[in-house]
Design goal:
The protein is an alpha/beta fold. The chain contains 13 helices and 11 strands. It has helices spanning about 5, 10-15, 20-25, 55-65, 80-90, 110-115, 135-140, 160-170, 225-235, 240-250, 255-275, 300-310, 335-345, and strands spanning about 75, 100, 120, 145-150, 175-180, 200-205, 220, 280-285, 290-295, 315, 325-330. It binds 4'-deoxy-4'-aminopyridoxal-5'-phosphate.
């Protein structure tokens, strides 16, 4: 079954990680002459002349309280995209190993694989946008290292059946990554509490969606301590900058506002679903567990261009398999949603 050491690339197993000045000195001191920083300051009022905490313990402790997960089970990345890339570099031998994605899905699993010269196998979702477990199983071989599952899925907006994900977790001896970027907009339970049951599970979340902090670039991976140690070994020493750490800490104090925003976005999503459905241009709206809607329209290319001419940008997904004729529309502010509905009403 799952053996982390066997799954790792040889070079990573043997790697002696970089040890930074901030890793080596732990304790109290007043004079820091160990890291070749500029002790005089910086042009900014808030200086930022010191390197940040390489392991971001304060942020992880705050997250631990919010998520109910111990800090040593948390890795923080420069966006989820760094959490994705590091798994490739740690576990997938270029030109030899492969991973499985379930398209249509988030594009970076594939792009990051190509950057790392790792083969991508595709178990296209079934017509109801659920996992095709038979196809998935047939694609697995001894070089399959990771199965990527996005739930709720981008761009189809639905959650994967929990039992199906459990079947994969119970039977696949490699890593199973469940990307929960949109979980806060869903009625479904996160897999974050299942880490003790599944040593092969990595759950990804992000501050970019429900937390409203896409500009900060803070992605999270939750996993066993052993997997988190691999992440920490491979990551750049100071991957999360000081400003991001401070701002994330501040944001994590205000869960009430985030919960209010989630409720408001979900209410507007449901309202938009009703109003869009009444428009002649709309053929179908898929149920959404996310902060966006996948909408089939009469002529996706024309509608996309028409909206652009009105200054409204949506995502044209009409060339994506199973999403033919579809646009992906983010739930915006009340005013933005109103402008979209009015424009579409006049198409
Ligand atoms: N996962 C999914 C499913 C996404 O849709 C996105 C962004 N569109 C991300 C991850 C990226 O998140 P981040 O901003 O943390 O890199």
């Amino acid at each position: 079954m799952f053996q982390l050491d066997k799954l790792l690339r040889d070079n990573i197993r043997k790697l002696v990680p970089y040890s930074s000045a901030r890793d080596e000195f732990k304790g109290e001191a007043q004079v820091f002459l160990d890291a070749n920083e500029n002790s005089l300051g910086s042009p900014l009022t808030r200086w930022y002349n010191r390197y940040p905490d390489p392991l971001q313990w304060k942020v992880k402790e705050a997250l631990s309280r919010v998520k109910g997960i111990a800090p040593q089970h948390i890795f923080l990345g420069n966006g989820s995209d760094e959490c994705i890339d590091i798994l490739y570099r740690a576990f997938c031998e270029p030109g030899k190993d492969n991973v499985i994605i379930n398209p249509p899905t988030y594009g970076m699993y594939e792009v990051s694989a190509h950057i790392n010269d790792v083969e991508v196998r595709r178990a296209t979702l079934l017509d109801d946008f659920q996992l095709d477990l038979v196809h998935l199983e047939n694609l697995v071989d001894e070089n399959t290292k990771i199965i990527w599952i996005c739930s709720p899925n981008n761009p189809t907006a639905n959650s994967m059946n929990r039992q199906d994900v459990e079947v994969v977790l119970n039977n696949f001896p490699g890593l199973v990554v469940v990307d929960e970027a949109y979980i806060n907009f869903s009625r479904h339970r996160s897999f974050i509490q299942e880490l003790t049951d599944y040593p092969n599970l990595v759950v990804m979340q992000t501050m970019s969606k429900a937390w409203g902090l896409a500009g900060l670039r803070l992605g999270m991976a939750f996993a066993s301590e052993a997997i988190i140690n691999v992440y920490n070994k491979v990551k750049p020493p100071y991957n999360i900058n000081q400003a991001t750490q401070e701002l994330a800490l501040k944001a994590l104090e205000d869960t009430d506002q985030v919960n209010d925003m989630i409720r408001a976005l979900v209410t507007m999503r449901e309202q938009m679903t009703i109003e869009l459905a009444a428009l002649p241009v709309v053929k179908k709206i898929y149920p959404s567990d996310a902060n966006f809607l996948l909408v089939k329209v009469t002529d996706a290319k024309a509608v996309y261009q028409y909206l652009l001419n009105k200054g409204i940008v949506v995502r044209d997904r009409s060339k994506v398999e199973l999403c033919e004729g579809c646009l992906r529309i983010t739930v915006g502010t009340a005013s933005e949603n109103r402008q979209l509905l009015e424009a579409l009403g006049q198409f």
